[in-house]
Amino acid sequence: LQRWLKDLEDQISTDSALQNTLQEKKLQLDRVKVQQLNISSQKSIIDSLNVKAQHLKQSSRDANLGAQISLVVDRYERLAKRAKNLHDQCEKNLQDHQIYRDSYM
């Protein structure tokens, strides 16, 4: 799960770069949509981990284990938010480019 999170964080960072052409922006948006689907497909696993972390915090003397799981859950939530923000920005960039193209070309 940690590796999966790291890989997606790297992909999101890579896809954050501004694109020049309309086609590049469309491809970027498509990649971000796939990443969002990948992230959302793991939500049930993350939710389950979160529930287990809460139980561990209550029942275990090893608070560190529950805290580690909570960190993974927080990392996932930040990743999902970054992906959503990137998706919104890509859509806006694509729309702005299309409007510019339609207006001036």
UniProtKB/TrEMBL annotation:
Domain of life where this protein originates: Eukaryota
Protein name: Uncharacterized protein
